[in-house]
Predict the 3D structure of the following.
Amino acid sequence: MNSAIAMKRYVIFTNANLVCLTGDSGWAIQNGAAMLTLDEKIIAIGDETELINLIGKDVACEKIDLGGAIVTPGLIDAHTHLVYGGNRADEFELRLQGASYEELAKRGAGIMSTVRATRAASEEALFESASFRARELMSSGVTTIEIKSGYGLSAIDEQRCLRVARRIGQVLPMSVKTTYLAAHALPLEFAGRQDDYVNAVCDWLPALHADKLIDAVDAFCENIAFTVPQVRRLFDKAKSLGIPIKLHAEQLSDLGGTLLATEFNALSCDHLEHLSAEGVQAMAASGTVAMLLPGAFYFLRETKLPPVKELRSAGVPIAIATDHNPGSSPTLSPTLVMSMACTFFRLTPEEALRGMTVNAAKALGLIDRGQLAPGLRADFVAWPSTIEQPNQLMYSFGQAPKGRVFIGAKEVVS
Ligand code: NIG
Ligand code: FE
């Protein structure tokens, strides 16, 4: 007998109101249902006795009573910038006094002030602060997370940030997808040499990719960041290495970044407040997810709304995320962000939840999660008894309900 062969672990979760989100619309709630899992996956959903019969009474099967909880798929936060040093609370005050986000960026504050703080921090300190943030998100129901680099902006500092992101996925039970965002801002040492910096960003990519530090490539396509032709060069490089792309596009103006990103079949285009009708059609045609970020919209006191109705009628999948970062969205509350998506962007509560589950999975290219269904990962949240129906997750804004969080059928937050 080889003792290294792991025993199969069956668990039956009983007494649950499962918000399955299967199908294209509707909550698909199964009341008083049970869910059978084998190792990290769901194998069946239905009546408790039927599920036990399915595996046979003699097979060892753990039973976990979920106490009548509303159970949703684990939340997927598919756009975050978790790894950074310092904070930008003073900049927040300056903006309240009238300074704009763009003005601050042009003065070398904004993203560049976080770059200075990130470079000055040790890798260990970056890991400590980023893993604290990841834990916070996990305790609020997040089971999969995307983490971008973009506050290092040198070969060595981008590598450190990506290593920290990878380590979070190794140390915490949540799944982590990493994204290379070196094209986030122009570092001082490249002042006046924007094209040279883009070349450097392209040159650093193969080694980081070979070290398995990168799952996707992103850029900030904006007047205060990089132009469409510059981003195209980076995307060509990513494509030559077979790396999927995504883009911070049309956040503060309409540069047409979405048209470029869809040419490369981007997984997602993110922000999109200034997206044109042409951009919507291009996204629909390429199957690109529209990643809306209501935290940044709120915190930058934006007034231009993303074209939600148009995205919806064109059939573009809409995802939402915290966009956690120190400058434009320092929140760690996924439920608050879902609430903002409803209040500001007029998503229905069901669309908001789909935005942080099913469609967020699509934005990461993941097909094994985001709903509760046989064959998918057993990543889910059993919300506290104060949540009697799923739309309360968005309705009770700011209350941050803490549920029991399961990842791969293991309880990681109780
Ligand atoms: O997604 N838009 C660009 N990047 C971040 C903000 C970065 C910052 O201000 O530090 C965002 O909003
Ligand atoms: Fe962002």
